[in-house]
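Why should sequence recovery work at all? Because a backbone constrains its sequence more than one might expect. Tight turns favour small or flexible residues, buried strands favour hydrophobic ones, and helices have their own preferences. The token representation captures these environments compactly. In the example below, the structure is given first.
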């Protein structure tokens, strides 16, 4: 019997401190006997929702219990200069699955309704024709599971989809073979409703199965079923949790939801602010436990040595999250909105215990995983990422030296180690090589550098404008 994390939730809670220490055993010491014959690697891609840069023990946080993600980092590489393509949910996920900037793939804003933010609950007939219901990623876009299918992969998604609700936009029409999860930007963790609207699907059909159960457990259960069912063939298992995003409920302030036994792991809150932070921390720890179950299953089925495991947050932390030492948070183009924690365990490619500060983004995963799988990249599709395997392995520097962000009237750019931020009433030029917190505006001291970043940003804007237009937002 292995000495890492046990799957039983009750025992997990009772022995958390002991298991956190045991979970750091070297990767090879935890492998089940009789590992499968070497073949094309499986892929387990886990995405958290609105998690702070400093909300993992392995990133120096220490406040939140994350023993399984910490041991994942010990078995692989922890990325410290990793960025997403947009500072909030939908476009970030679209770029992950297409390998393209939001401005290129057409999903450069959210598919969501604004009225619930002001306490309005949609009746079904009105909701059916709202933007949240009818918008989706352009059907001409090629998503990662479609590419992997060419190499014989079976793909499943369990959790947050967020790229369209109409049938033509749902996962099974975009290359996935199995889907259980919700189709919009957020839900209540127990009712699985978004502001009173049922949101869960099983493949192409709405479902209320599992209503009342904590959704982190449901998504994990389905992912484990998929892994077991496909243990003898290459698979892509995408698990985009909604934790630790706030619950989509009408009451204010909107809470993060977590089971009571996980809240009990933390000190009793003394005020409303502390209570919200405890809920958040508990949701992260519950998700960490769920991730531990997935890692354990890979060990038990002998697949761990042939499975790429990737974890990152879809954007910077919001609400009670801790993004320190970064400035800003979700929705902003400060580092705290776009630089996120990311861990990659890739046996045979990535050395255990590596820390990598190379400049990388989520758009690199599309070409990296496709090429690792032996899948041909889509013809005629301009990708904004590249094969990052050698960078992750620590054998080559990253060729990336630029990244650009636009969220409505929030703009940002990183060129080499210079960062430019332009938001209403705030922004400036920063040298993030020695000012990661973006505290010292160097615009007046370095006008030539500022002009260089502005010129690069304008060139990028022109390239995006010249790209073949995609919906749903662009006029063409």
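From this structural description, the recovered sequence reads:
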């Amino acid at each position: 019997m292995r000495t890492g994390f046990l799957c039983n939730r009750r025992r997990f809670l009772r022995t958390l401190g002991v298991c956190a220490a045991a979970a750091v055993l070297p990767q090879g010491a935890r492998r089940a006997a009789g590992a499968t014959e070497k073949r094309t690697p499986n892929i387990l891609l886990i995405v958290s929702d609105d998690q702070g840069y400093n909300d993992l023990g392995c990133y120096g946080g220490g406040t939140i219990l994350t023993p399984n993600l910490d041991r994942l980092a010990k078995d692989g590489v922890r990325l410290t200069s990793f960025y997403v393509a947009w500072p909030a949910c939908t476009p970030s996920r679209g770029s992950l699955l297409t390998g393209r900037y939001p401005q290129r793939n057409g999903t450069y804003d959210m598919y969501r309704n604004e009225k619930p933010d002001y306490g309005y609950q949609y009746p079904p007939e009105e909701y059916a024709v709202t933007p949240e219901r009818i918008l989706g990623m352009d059907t001409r876009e090629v998503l990662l599971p479609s590419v992997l299918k060419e190499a014989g992969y079976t793909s499943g998604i369990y959790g947050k989809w967020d790229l369209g609700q109409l049938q033509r936009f749902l996962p099974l029409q975009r290359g996935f073979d199995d889907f259980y999860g919700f189709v919009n930007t957020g839900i209540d963790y127990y009712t699985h409703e978004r502001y009173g609207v049922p949101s869960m699907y099983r493949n192409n059909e709405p479902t209320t199965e599992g209503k009342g159960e904590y959704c982190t457990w449901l998504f994990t259960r389905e992912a484990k079923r998929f892994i077991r069912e496909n243990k003898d063939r290459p698979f892509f298992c995408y698990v985009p949790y909604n934790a630790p995003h706030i619950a989509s409920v009408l009451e204010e302030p909107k809470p993060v939801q977590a089971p009571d036994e996980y809240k009990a792991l933390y000190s009793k809150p003394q005020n409303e602010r502390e209570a919200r932070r405890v809920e958040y921390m508990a949701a992260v720890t519950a998700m960490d436990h769920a991730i531990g179950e997935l890692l354990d299953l890979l060990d038990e089925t002998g697949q761990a040595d042939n499975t790429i495991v990737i974890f990152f947050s879809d954007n910077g932390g919001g609400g009670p999250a801790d993004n320190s030492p970064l400035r800003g948070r979700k929705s902003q183009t400060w580092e705290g909105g776009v630089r996120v924690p990311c861990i990659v365990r890739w046996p045979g490619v990535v050395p255990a215990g590596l820390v990598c500060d190379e400049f990388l983004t989520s758009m690199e995963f599309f070409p990296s995983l496709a090429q690792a799988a032996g899948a041909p990249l889509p013809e005629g599709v301009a990708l904004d990422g590249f094969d990052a395997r050698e960078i992750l392995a620590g054998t080559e520097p990253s060729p990336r030296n630029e990244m650009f962000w636009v969220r409505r009237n929030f703009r940002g750019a990183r060129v080499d180690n210079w960062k430019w931020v332009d938001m209403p009433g705030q922004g400036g030029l920063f040298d993030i090589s020695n000012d990661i917190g973006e505290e010292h505006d160097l615009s007046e001291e370095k006008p030539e550098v500022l002009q260089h970043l502005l010129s690069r940003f304008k060139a990028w804007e022109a390239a995006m404008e010249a790209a073949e237009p995609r919906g749903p937002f662009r006029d063409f």
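A few observations help interpret the result. Residues 1-7, 17-36 have pLDDT under 50 and may be disordered.
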